[in-house]
Amino acid sequence: MSSLNKSPFLQIFLSYLPIFMLFFSVFNEFDFNYLKLEYFSFNFVHLLIFFWTLRNPDHLGYLVIFFAGIINDVVIGIPLGISSFCYLLLCSVTAYIRNITLSPNFIKDWISLLFTILLINSIQVIVLDLIFLITVDYMNYLINSGFTFLFYPIFFVVFNFLNKRISIQQND
Amino acid sequence: MASSRDDFVIAIRSAFLKKKDKQKFSLLTLIFLSFIVIVLSNFNFKATQIVKSSINEVIYRSSALISTPENYIKSLKKDFDQHMRLYKTHKATKIELENLKQKQLTNDFLKIENKKLRSLIDENIETKEIFAKVLIDKESPYLKSVVLNKGSRDNVKIGMAIVDGVYLVGQIIEVNYTNSRALLLSDFNSKIPSVLAPNDIQAVVSGTGSNYGIIEYTQYEIEKNLNESEIIAYTSGLGGLFKPGIPIGKMSISSTGKINFFSDFTQLNYVKITSYKIGSKK
Question: Do B30 and A63 touch (CB under 8 A)?
Answer without folding.
Answer: yes
